[in-house]
Amino acid sequence: MNIVVCVKYVPDAQADRTFNEDNTTDRSNVDGLLSELDEYAVEEALKIVEAGEGEVTVVTVGPEAASDAIKKALQMGAHKGVHVLDDAIHGSDAPATSLVLAEAIKKATDGKPELVLMGLASTDGTMSVVPAMLAERLGLPQVTQLSTLEVADGVVKGRRDSDVASDSFESPLPAVVSVTDQISEPRYPSFKGIMAAKKKPVETWSLADLGVDTGQVGLDNAATKVLSFQARPPREQGEIVTDEGDGGTKLAEFLAKAKLI
Predict the structure, then answer these.
(1) Which of the residue ranges 14-28, 68-82, 133-147, 168-182 would you say has the lowest mean pLDDT?
(2) What does the alpha-carbon distance between residue 32 and residue 112 come to, in Å, rounded to a whole number?
(3) What does the alpha-carbon distance between residue 1 and residue 53 come to, in Å, rounded to a whole number?
(4) Residue 192: partners with Cβ closer than 8 Å, 6 or more residues away
(5) What fold is seen in the domain 2-221?
(6) Which of 66, 118, 151, 255 is a plausible cystine mate for 261, CB 3.0–4.6 Å?
């Protein structure tokens, strides 16, 4: 089975993240990495292929530095990568992103994707809507937010767990599937995998290569935009309550004043 995994290059959550002057996320002046939640999708794809046959292709849309996300997935064991790189994509919203991904997947699979895997969400946007949008654009069934995954005999099965229930799903292939961080633990790249990744093919495509009009993407054509932002104020020092035999009373008064009790 040939599996496509959509991955995203995101700012490191431990870094000082900020926005550009046009209110888009600054991805150039901050350390970035493969979105942690996408690692789970890569892991599941590798397990499926290792249990049978086929290959894993990772696809990303982003600036030049986004090639690092592909590199990490190749080091984990993916077989090849596709990087959609075009300045016109800057500032694209979720609908535009799903459009570009859909066309890239069609091109990578000659219009016949067998299984498309994605993470639960990107760790920078956390919208969780692109898998559904992508399924719609590809005309495929979607099975999203799975905590378990099984692929056999042309069928994908899985369980979605929530706070109140667990639901089981089944769909014929081809399909678009997203998985959560409950599904398994992603592998660490081995030294052998890191060295092998240097020889694996990575293609770079523009919007023209995909037949996507620049008028369908980018900040000027986005349906949603960030209007303003401001830095989080520094955390203020908390109040220190000295217990002189009435510590419990003082604590209760503090909580009552804050309307916590």
Answers:
(1) 14-28
(2) 32
(3) 6
(4) none
(5) Rossmann fold (3.40.50)
(6) 255
Q: What is the DSSP string of 84-130?
A: E--GGGTT--HHHHHHHHHHHHHHHTTT--SEEEEES--TTT----H
Q: Which long-range contacts (CB under 8 A, 24 or more apart) does 86-89 make?
A: 86/206, 86/207, 86/208, 86/214, 88/207, 88/214, 88/217, 88/218, 89/61, 89/62, 89/207, 89/217, 89/218
What's the confidence (pLDDT) of residue 216? 96
Pairwise CA distance, residues 87 & 85, whole Å: 7
- Tokens coding 208: 């023209």
Residue 221 amino acid letter: N
Whether the per-residue pLDDT at 25 is higher than 90: the answer is no
Q: Is residue 28 scored above 80 in pLDDT? A: no
Q: In residues, how long is the chain?
A: 261
Q: Return the domain boundaries, the chain.
A: 2-221
CA 133/CA 148 separation, integer angstroms: 22
Torsion angles phi and psi, residue 158, rounded to 5: -170, 170
Side-chain half-sphere CA neighbours of 200 within 13 A:
24
In this prediction the pTM is: 0.87
Q: Which amino acid is at 43?
A: E
Tens digits of residue pLDDT in 208-244: 999 999 999 999 999 988 888 888 888 888 878 788 8
pLDDT, mean over the chain: 93
Q: Quick one: CA torsion of 9, 191, 204, 82, rounded to 10 degrees? A: -70
Query: Is 113 in contact with 140 (CB distance < 8 Å)?
Result: yes
